[in-house]
C-alpha cells in the first residue's frame, strides 16, 4: 500500500515564506487575511505533492479555517477540490485548558469535543494531544513524573478519549521533548495505564531520539496503538538541562534536522510504521521551513525510499 503524505501546518509558519519579519507578524497578518493564508498554504501543499495536513495552534488552527470558509464542510470542500484533506488536529498546551489542574476537567472535555466535532465534519478522525511539560531540573519544590501523576493523566485521557470517540474521533498522544511523555519509560507507563480502546499513541521519531530513546523500539512495543506518527530527524540527544519555559521549543530547534541527515533509523522506523493502524499516512514534520515546498519534497523523497513499493 502506498501511503498518503501529510505535514503539520507549522511547516508554513516561517516568516520568510510570507515575506514578513517575525512569527508575530505572520499571526497578525493571517488573522486579518485568513482566506489568503489558507489559499497560499493549499497551493504550497499541492506544489509539494503532499495531500494531508494536521491543524494546530494559530494561525493554522480550527478557528482560522472557520473564519476563512465559514464552516467545516465548506473547508472540506475547498481542500477536496485540490485533492487535499485534514488528517488530524493537534492540541497545543498553550491553546487549551491545563491538564495539571483537576478542576479544569469540564473545560478540557468541552474543548476536546469542540475540536472533535469539527474534525468529524471535515472528514478527519484523529485528535492529537500531549501531556504537560516537565519543570526545569532543579526547580523547588521538585515535580516528579511518578505513578500517581501518570494515573491522574490517564484518568483525564480516558474521559477525553471517550468523549471524542462519540464523534467518531480517536485521541492519540504525542511524545514531545521535555514533556511528561518524552522518555521511553514515560511512554510505556502512560500506555500501560490507559485503555487501548480510548487512548492511542502518536510517536514523534525526533523527540523520542532527543530524549535518548530508540524511536524504533518504542514503535515496535506499541505497534497496535499507533494511530499516527510524526516523521522528523534528530541531530543527537539533548545533552543539557534546558530551561523549561516559553522558549523551550526554540531551545530544542538546534537538535532537530531534515529527514535523512540525523540519527533516526528510517529503515527500521518505516518497517515498524507499516505494521500500525496508522500506516496509511506518513506525516512529515518540519517546524517553520523558510521554503516549505522544497523541504517537503526533500522529506517525502527520503520517506518514499522506505515506504513506497518499487515498480516491478
Explain what you see.
α6 links the parallel β3 (about 85-90) and β4. This protein has 13 helices and 10 strands. About 40% of the residues are buried. With about 300 residues, the protein is α/β, with parallel strands linked by helices. The chain starts with a strand and ends in a 5-residue tail after the last helix. It has helices spanning about 15-20, 25-30, 35-50, 60-70, 70-80, 105-120, 145-165, 185-195, 205-210, 215-220, 250, 265-275, 290-305, and strands at about 5-10, 50-55, 85-90, 125-130, 170-175, 200, 230, 235, 255, 280-285. The protein is globular. The protein has an 8-stranded parallel β-sheet. Strands 8-9 form a two-stranded antiparallel sheet.
Topology diagram in text:
Elements (H helix, E strand, L loop, with lengths): L3 E5 L6 H4 L4 H10 L1 H15 L3 E4 L6 H8 L2 H9 L4 E6 L14 H18 L3 E4 L17 H19 L4 E5 L9 H10 L6 E3 L2 H6 L4 H7 L8 E2 L1 E2 L13 H5 L3 E2 L8 H8 L7 E4 L7 H16 L5
Parallel strand pairs: 1-2, 1-10, 2-3, 3-4, 4-5, 5-6, 7-10
Antiparallel strand pairs: 8-9
Label the structural class: alpha/beta
In spatial order, strands of the major sheet run 6-5-4-3-2-1-10-7
**How widely separated are the two ends?**
14 Å
Parts with pLDDT < 50 across at least 5 consecutive residues: none
Work out the number of β strands. 10
Q: What amount of the residues lies in strands?
A: 5-15%
Largest sheet: 8 strands, parallel
Number of helices: 13
Judging from the principal axes of the Cα atoms, what is the shape? Answer: globular
Report the helical percentage.
Answer: 40-55%
Question: Mean pLDDT across all residues, rounded?
Answer: 95
Question: What radius of gyration results from the CA coordinates?
Answer: 18 Å
SSE order, as H and E?
EHHHEHHEHEHEHEHHEEHEHEH
Oligomeric state of the chains present here: single chain
Amino acid at each position: 500500500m502506498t501511503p498518503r503524505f501529510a505535514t503539520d501546518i507549522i511547516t508554513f509558519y516561517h516568516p520568510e515564506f510570507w515575506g514578513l519579519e517575525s512569527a508575530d507578524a505572520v499571526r497578525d497578518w493571517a488573522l486579518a487575511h485568513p482566506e489568503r493564508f489558507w489559499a497560499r498554504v493549499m497551493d504550497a501543499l499541492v506544489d509539494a505533492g503532499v495531500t494531508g495536513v494536521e491543524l494546530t495552534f494559530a494561525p493554522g488552527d480550527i478557528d482560522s479555517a472557520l473564519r476563512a470558509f465559514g464552516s467545516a464542510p465548506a473547508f472540506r470542500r475547498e481542500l477536496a477540490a485540490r485533492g487535499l484533506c485534514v488528517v488530524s488536529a493537534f492540541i497545543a498546551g498553550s491553546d487549551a485548558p491545563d491538564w495539571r489542574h483537576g478542576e479544569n476537567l469540564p473545560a478540557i472535555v468541552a474543548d476536546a469535543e469542540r475540536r472533535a466535532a469539527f474534525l468529524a465534519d471535515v472528514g478527519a478522525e484523529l485528535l492529537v494531544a500531549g501531556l504537560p511539560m516537565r519543570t526545569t531540573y532543579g526547580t523547588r519544590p521538585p515535580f516528579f513524573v511518578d505513578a500517581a501523576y501518570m494515573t491522574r493523566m490517564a484518568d483525564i485521557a480516558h474521559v477525553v478519549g471517550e468523549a471524542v470517540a462519540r464523534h467518531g474521533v480517536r485521541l492519540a498522544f504525542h511524545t514531545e521533548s521535555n514533556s511528561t511523555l518524552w522518555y521511553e519509560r514515560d511512554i510505556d507507563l502512560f500506555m500501560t495505564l490507559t485503555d487501548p480502546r480510548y487512548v492511542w499513541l502518536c510517536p514523534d521519531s525526533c523527540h523520542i531520539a532527543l530524549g535518548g530513546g530508540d524511536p524504533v523500539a518504542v514503535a515496535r512495543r506499541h505497534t497496535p496503538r499507533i494511530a499516527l506518527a510524526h516523521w522528523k530527524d534528530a541531530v543527537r540527544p539533548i545533552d543539557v538541562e534546558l530551561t523549561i519555559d516559553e522558549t523551550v521549543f526554540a531551545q530544542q530547534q538546534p537538535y532537530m534536522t531534515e529527514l535523512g541527515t540525523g540519527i533516526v533509523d528510517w529503515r527500521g522506523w518505516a518497517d515498524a510504521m507499516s505494521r500500525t493502524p496508522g500506516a496509511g499516512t506518513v506525516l512529515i514534520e518540519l517546524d517553520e521551513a523558510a521554503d516549505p515546498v522544497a523541504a517537503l519534497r526533500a522529506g517525502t523523497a527520503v520517506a518514499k525510499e522506505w515506504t513506497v513499493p518499487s515498480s516491478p
